[in-house]
Amino acid sequence: MLELRDLKKTYGGRAVLHGLSHQFLPGEFVAIMGESGVGKSTLLNLIAGLDAPDSGAIIVDGQPMGALDDDAATLLRRTRMGFIFQAFHVLPHLTLVQNVALPLLLNGQPQARASAMLAAVGLAGRDGDFPRQLSGGEMQRVAIARALVHQPALVLADEPTGNLDPETADSVLDLLRAEVKASGASAIMVTHSHAAAARADKTLVLTRSGLELVSFPH
Ligand SMILES: Nc1ncnc2c1ncn2[C@@H]1O[C@H](COP(=O)(O)OP(=O)(O)OP(=O)(O)O)[C@@H](O)[C@H]1O
Ligand SMILES: [Mg+2]
Question: What separation in Å is there between the alpha carbon of 11 and the centre of ligand 1?
Fold first, then answer.
């Protein structure tokens, strides 16, 4: 589904990714941990197309992203990927259902699923509310609904529960796992939390030498 081949990324002469290769399996929910500054967000940003690698390939469904023109790469990301990034926050001037419907709108798909998706994350009947009326945990639920509404094959999440108290984080992670598994998507979740990583099928640690499998009792 997703393969990284010899990815290299340098910022201002400092190498962050040194030739990273990894194959992610379809339907697998993977946690990525690792020291602050090691390049976890950089890696997700490259997969998401927010930044470009210096060399190497990101291969989605057998297609090297670098070989596609900008429009084709954007289309592939928009239809096949879902994002839960703290930087892509829920938009304050849109209602909850409008926020969740955004990926459908961008893909020209019917928007009816947005309301059902809000209900699936425990926000039934809140369609017309605005983000300012929500708690942090509820906001992350909206972000999860939006990331999954267009049934992406790959969900990317960077610290999806970083700002939440442990109980709220637990319920958001249960929801994320349940929705990802129900949809059959693959997911990559970057986290500093062992409790969060324990919700994944397996945990990889990013180090200077690459992505290494670690075994925690999952
Ligand atoms: N746009 C950028 N310009 C310059 N340097 C950058 C940029 N983005 C990241 N870096 C540098 O690359 C390194 C890796 O950053 P990254 O954000 O990927 O780390 P991380 O593993 O996600 O850390 P954290 O756990 O703290 O979120 C850091 O040293 C950072 O300063
Ligand atoms: Mg980061």
Answer: 9
Give per-residue pLDDT as tens, 62-83: 999 999 999 999 999 999 999 9
Q: How far apart are CA 168 and CA 48, in angstroms?
A: 26
Q: Which ligand is nearest to the CA of 16?
A: 1
Cβ proximity of 89 and 132 under 8 Å: no
Ligand 2 geometric centre to CA of 158 (Å): 7
* Cα gap 148→29, rounded to integer Å: 14
Going from the Cα of 127 to the center of ligand 2, the distance in angstroms, rounded, reads 31
Instruction: Kindly state if the Cβ of 36 falls inside 6 Å of ligand 1.
Output: yes
What is the rounded average pLDDT for all residues in the chain?
Answer: 93
The predicted-structure confidence for 23-68, as pLDDT tens digits, reads as follows 999 999 999 999 999 999 999 999 999 899 999 999 998 999 999 9
The CATH class of the 2-91+148-216 domain is alpha beta
Q: Is the CB of 126 under 6 A from ligand 1?
A: no
Paired with 131 in beta bridges are none
Mean pLDDT of 94-114: 96
